[in-house]
Every structure is written in C-alpha cells, then in structure tokens.
C-alpha cells in the first residue's frame, strides 16, 4: 500500500520503541531505572536499535531477559507530529518483546495514517533500515532518521513549535519508504 509518506516520524517512534526493548545487560528479573542502571535508551542500543525509537522522558522500564518481555513507562500519554506527515501516540505504558534487531508484539504505540490510527506491532532492523509494521502493511526508513529522540508535543522541531505541534517543513531528501503490504 502506498499510503505512508516518506518521513522519519513513523520511523523515529518505532525506533524508540525498539531501543527500549533490546536491553543487552538486562537480568532475568525486571529492571528499573534507578542508580547505576542502564537507561532505556542504552538498552535499545544494546539490541542494535537507535535511541530515537523512544521519546524523551521514559521514567523507568522492566525487562525480563529470559523472554525479552519489556515494559517502558512514560509520565503520561505522549503524542507529536514528525515532518508534518505522521502523527504518533505513545500510551503511558509501552510493552512488547525485544531481541537483537527485532521488536514484536508491541502495544502502546500508534501512528495516524490518513485518517486512521493504527498500532505499530513490530519493528525490524535490516542493516541500515528499520521496517515498521502495522499488521496490514509495513514501511522501511533509513536508520539515521532515528538517532535523535523526539519530545512529547513537538517531536523533533521543538525550537520552532512555541508549545504547538510543529508546522510542516522540508527535511533533507532521502529515499522514500519501501512499502510492503497486505
């Protein structure tokens, strides 16, 4: 399906989720972000995902290393627009199963495509691309679109937002998403 515009918004949100799910130094018991623990962003990097899959402000996380099951906790729900095309929503709790280069059974993250809100259910890293699946379709984006964490309310354009969602602006050109569908 060709309903996903070539933007980094969808990719950034998915990458943030993937980063959170792939914590390399996690133990079989749940981990919380306290003291010297790894941040959820460091955990994502340990599973070969960029930090930009998660928005700024993840308060804590739990990871069961034996199953890969994880939960990430935000202060509240979070939404923002990326590149003026994608709108993303994160619930206050994000969960799924993480393994190297793969996040699956995701819940708590959705993307608005046209007029429909669809749940992002899987993110897979294939070399320098991230593939995001909403079940019925998927889109791939360059991984370098996810090196920066978006902020709730303003995404990646907070300096120009004045407390509002960012206006559309041109991003450097890059190949559009590879679509696989239905």
TrEMBL record:
Keywords: Signal. Transmembrane segments: none annotated. The keyword Signal applies. Pfam families: DUF538 (PF04398). Residues 1-28 form the signal peptide. Coiled coil: none annotated. InterPro entries: At5g01610-like, DUF538. The keyword Signal applies. Gene3D superfamilies: At5g01610-like. This is DUF538 domain-containing protein. The lineage of its organism: Eukaryota, Viridiplantae, Streptophyta, Embryophyta, Tracheophyta.
